[in-house]
Amino acid sequence: MIQDIRNWSFDDYTRVVVYTDRKISYAVRELPADPKNGKPPRIYLDFEHARLAPELRKELAINDGLLRRARIAQFDRDTARLVLDVQRIARYHVVPFSGPPRIVIDVYGSDRKVQVPGPVVRKAPPTGEDPVGALLGGGGSSVPVAKTAPPKARKKVIVIDAGHGGKDPGAIGYKGVYEKNIVLAVANRVAEQLRRRGHRVIQTRDKDVFLTLEERTVIANRERADLFVSIHANSARNPAAHGIETYHLARATDKRSREVAARENASGGGDSDMDALEELLGALRLSNKLNVSSTVARFVQNNLKLLLAPRYRDTYRDLGVKGAPFYVLVGTDMAAILVELGFVTHPKESKLLQTSRYRDYLATGIVKGIEEYLKKLPKVPI
Ligand SMILES: [Zn+2]
Q1: Is the pTM of this model over 0.85?
Q2: Do the beta carbons of residue 337 and residue 297 sit within 8 Å?
Q3: How far is the CA of 180 from the centre of ligand 1 (A)?
């Protein structure tokens, strides 16, 4: 049953989400413009074994410059068809999710290169509602939203994403410590340090609230961020496993990377289909973004090592820079990395992760890595 269709429009970026009552298979196809019949180019999704819920809105007027409208109909007894009338788009991707089951269609108006950020021009969402609040299903947003910058020379925008939160504790470690609390403490330090150094920072969460993975990426894409840094802590069945690793977006480099990605992708009860994600990665025309991401990952991993290796000889272990298809990274339209701060399941590392001093070092290492990367970005006059 197709239950609902919603859309969120931002500058140069539109998200359409189709909510269903269970996992559903679908096919994505494109149709060129048909000027004779006055038809624009179209993208359509055929949902198999699908019926429309009686209360479903059959048509959404979008008219945001990227999509004109979305409409859905029962195509035949067994198939529901969603058609997106295109105004102007550069690319799009479709990713299925569960918890709740839904298909997310992200549409981009241009192929922005991460090194050449455009000016920040945000327009109010056409519905007049707060898009993030709406996504959260509540009234107001609990997510801090940065004020629109009025810059002549645009500051670099960095999104700091503390993993998990609220009802999602993340990994549960030694003596019952929660990943969500550790990563929030470090993320808040990273954000504070970056702000003090004059950078513009957006946090997906700065307190203990629940966000889905797609809400995190909506925030990042809406703010047209230059860099997305997701902060997590690791866990393993083997209590001896420890160390720090930084991921960038790629196909999984090895079996364990794939497992870590599968676990982090499952955040919040939802999970995304790993095969679909890897397929999507293959299709992404974003090799530039992928290269840049691995550079940032190396800078961060290296700066963490410089700070921690001499001070924590007993516990520090460099697990290196790896690739994996994290959804939170796939969904962002920018350079993105995911830092695994250490293992909450390792008694000593877990204890360190709960100390203020160690958290400060972790934050400083991440900030230094980010700044090393930002210095390499060309200054773009606007
Ligand atoms: Zn995590």
Answers
A1: no
A2: yes
A3: 7
pLDDT of 217 higher than 70: yes
- Domain presence at residue 222: yes
Report how far ligand 1's centroid is from the alpha carbon of 318 (Å): 18
pLDDT digits (tens, 9 = 90+) for 151-168: 445 688 999 999 999 999
Same domain, 219 and 82: no
- Mark whether 7 and 91 lie in a shared domain: yes
**Cβ-contact 41, 22 below 8 angstroms:** no
Question: Length of the chain, please?
Answer: 382
User: Residue 189: beta bridge partners?
Assistant: none
Mark the residues whose beta carbon lies below 5 A from ion ligand 1: 163, 170, 232, 264
CATH number, position 63: 2.60.40.3500
Q: How far is CA 286 from CA 199, 298, 336, 346, in A?
A: 25, 19, 12, 37
DSSP annotation of 43: E
- Give CA–CA dist 256/196, Å, rounded: 37
- Parent domain of 85: 2-108
Q: How confident is the model at residue 122 (pLDDT cuts 50, 70, 90)?
A: very low
